[in-house]
Amino acid sequence: MKRTLIWIGALLAGALLGLLGIGWLDEVMNFVATVYTRLFQLLAVPTIVLAVITTFAIFGSKGSGKIFGRTLTYTLLTTIAAATVGALLYVLIAPGNLPAELIGQGGEAAVQGPAVSYSDHLLSLVPNNIVKPFLEGNVLSLLLLAFAIGIGLSKLPDSENKSVIVKGLLGLQELLFLLIRWLIWTLPLGIVAFSAQLSAQVSAGIVADSIGKYVLVVLGGNVIQFFVVLPLFLLARGLNPIHVLGSMMPAVLMALFTKSSAATLPVTMETAEDRLGIKKNITRFVLPICTTINMNGCAAFILVTSLFVMQNGGTPLTWTTIVLWIFISVISAVGNAGVPMGCYFLTFSLMSGVGAPVAILGVILPIYTIIDMVETAENVWSDSCVTTMVNHDL
Question: What is the secondary structure of 17-37 as a DSSP string?
Fold first, then answer.
């Protein structure tokens, strides 16, 4: 709660500074915003790659058995549903484009390359050099590599060599988490800069219309997933969604205010066992996995935000493109292994990889704290639903 108030204060302070119209101050704010954009890009790619590898390496090795199979099935089904709801709402509400002068500020502009066919684009995602995707920042190729390495590690027989590799990767991941925590600690300064940049250079009416519709799509998708889609999953298994939600409400509310499904995990487990009566061997296996890979809200955020950013960069949003990005958002969300502000970092890295105007994410950042609260509550509710369904099936 304290951090949320600080971020809101930073947002208001930045807006006031931008309205002053002081030239040198605007230049300083633009410089700070660009610094934060570059720092996000620096940390995002290695963090996401390590998250995907370690997720599949650790949980894939435990994946023999009905419990994991059911958990993974329900996770994928609910996550695909969340992304699909987001896509349909995006098409229906159709957020407009931001002003061109805003897109050009706060980060690198979109790289306009020669026109290529979609098959050529898909072929370019298959790496022929393990170093090249890192040098080029091709995140989609890196996700393919991470997926292959993670599954490969899970299939290796247990040995000292495997243990050393996994521990080394986990150590690097902890180091990156520490750097991200430092960056988030200083983030109010970045929010001031982004907010000042926005209020100084853009007509508020145009931005409010475009960003307002974008926020409506994101939050609307979360609400539909929370109150309609997930209850339908429970009803399909013969479970009472009102009873389940009422029992899990302490965990859902804690997730809303902490914005961390990992921090909420002890409460989620205790609530599921004591109030819902789910077996301990189910909760203590399924819930930690769900906390790591079951990211309904994250998948919807990645999809909607990616479509919004690409649209502003001039990418035509055909149904083929939307379906492809539903798949990408689901896979990316599954690989989001508890990274702080993970959905934001995932989307940032994906948009960097396709040359989209990532500066738009600087505009979204000040309101991300509200989106993050709702997403986290939805994620914990989805975790509860998956655990309840697995317990019911087995």
Answer: HHHT--HHHHHHHHHHHHHHH
Query: What is the Cα–Cα distance from 164 to 162, expressed in whole angstroms?
Result: 5
pLDDT at position 312 is 87
Tokens of 84: 């699909």
**H or E segment and range at residue 360:** helix 360-393
Angle (CA) 217 39 296, round 5°: 30
Residues 127-142 pLDDT 10s: 787 887 777 766 667 7
Residue 92's alpha-carbon distances to 19, 86, 217, 312, in angstroms, are 34, 10, 9, 17
pLDDT in tens, 224-263: 999 999 999 999 999 999 999 999 998 888 788 667 777 6
Q: Which two tokens stand for residue 303?
A: 């999809």
Q: 238 in helix, strand or coil?
A: coil
Whether residue 25 is predicted with pLDDT greater than 60 in this model: the reply is yes
Q: Are 353 and 137 in contact (CB under 8 A)?
A: yes
Amino acid symbol at 20:
L
The tens digit of pLDDT for each residue in 160-193 reads 898 899 899 989 888 887 887 787 788 788 878 8
